[in-house]
From TrEMBL:
One Pfam family cited in the UniProt record for this chain: PhzC-PhzF
GO MF, any single term: isomerase activity
InterPro entries referenced in this protein's UniProt entry, alphabetically: Phenazine_PhzF-like
Species this chain originates from: Streptomyces ossamyceticus
Protein name: PhzF family phenazine biosynthesis isomerase
Keyword Endoplasmic reticulum on entry: no
Lineage: Bacteria, Bacillati, Actinomycetota, Actinomycetes, Kitasatosporales
Family statement drawn from the similarity comment of this UniProt entry: Belongs to the PhzF family.
Length: 299
């Protein structure tokens, strides 16, 4: 669907004027946890420079902008900006945006047209307490083994060694809308001790086109802990990374660790004081990964 199909003057039924910036924290039910995201429900009058300026002022790892849409069809054109640059896809901002729309339009299915393609999102609101959750369905996710030069440069910037890695979970470059290097730590203490070369890692990531480095530790086959350095976005670390979670689902399937439909929990943000819970549903056949989480307004 092209942007011309949308009613650009009535993205969500909001009045015209300076766009409001909503703030939500995704993958949590506590505003003090999760990953904060900015949400602009009517960005139809904004150009790239204006969206980048707003994202920089908000200061979160990403802000989602609805640039066009049809509220009656529940279909919207969405772009994502970090404080430094546009990002092709962002999971936590997608969840935040979906919850914001569900609160305005009611629960149900949404469709987001993003730079990486169509992203269906199902939303639900708990009638007991009014909390909202969203499940995004990624583009087909996959992964490949990391090249030695990719791994060596990353380990140097992280101040890690090969001995710090879990040999059972090999380094891969995984894709679920954008690319992330997946590195599995051999211990929880190694994951907790993160003190990396910000500029050095950013250089490596820009060279290879990675959005984050997805560092994980396997507590059990169905529960992983994660941390995601994001220096290319001007952010030291993401408290919850839905796009990386989708890519990680593709990684698990590529390695043959998913042979039947499975639900995996990812605990992220604990080591930076913003605990987040992400759920991914992965099947052996379907190339797409479903990422579920809640979101709550901040302030």
């Amino acid at each position: 669907m092209t942007s011309d199909t949308y009613d650009k003057n009535n993205v969500t039924g909001m009045s015209s004027g300076a766009p409001a910036v909503l703030r939500y924290s995704a993958f949590t039910d506590d505003p003090e946890g999760g990953n904060p995201a900015g949400v602009v429900l009517d960005a139809s009058a904004l150009d790239d420079a204006a969206m980048l300026a707003i994202a920089a002022e908000v200061g979160y790892s990403e802000t989602a902008f609805v640039t066009a849409g049809d509220a009656s069809a529940r279909r919207f054109q969405v772009r994502y900006f970090s404080p430094l640059a546009e990002v092709a896809f962002c999971g936590h901002a997608t969840v935040a945006l979906a919850v914001a729309l569900a609160e305005q339009l009611g629960a149900g299915d949404l469709l987001f047209d993003t730079p990486v393609g169509e992203i269906p999102v199902a939303t639900a609101i708990d009638p007991a307490d009014g909390t909202a959750r969203a499940t995004l369905t990624s583009v087909p996710a996959h992964s490949r083994a990391a090249a030695p030069r990719e791994l060596d440069a990353t380990l140097e910037a992280l101040h890690w060694s090969v001995d710090d890695l879990d040999a059972a979970l090999p380094p891969h470059v995984a894709f679920g809308g954008n690319e992330h290097l997946v590195l599995a730590a051999a211990s929880r203490s190694r994951l907790a001790d993160l003190d990396y070369d910000f500029d050095g890692l950013a250089d490596v990531m820009r060279r290879h086109g990675w959005t984050t480095v997805h560092l994980v530790w396997r507590e059990s086959p169905y529960l992983f802990h994660a941390r995601d350095p994001f220096p290319v976005g001007g952010v030291v670390e993401d408290p919850a990374t839905g796009a990386a979670a989708a890519a990680f689902g593709g990684y698990l399937r590529t390695l043959g660790l998913i042979t039947a439909p499975s639900t995996i929990g990812i605990r992220q943000g604990e080591d930076m004081g913003r605990p987040s819970d992400l759920r991914i549903d992965v099947s052996a056949e379907d190339g797409r990964v479903r990422v579920t989480g809640g979101a709550v307004p901040i302030g």
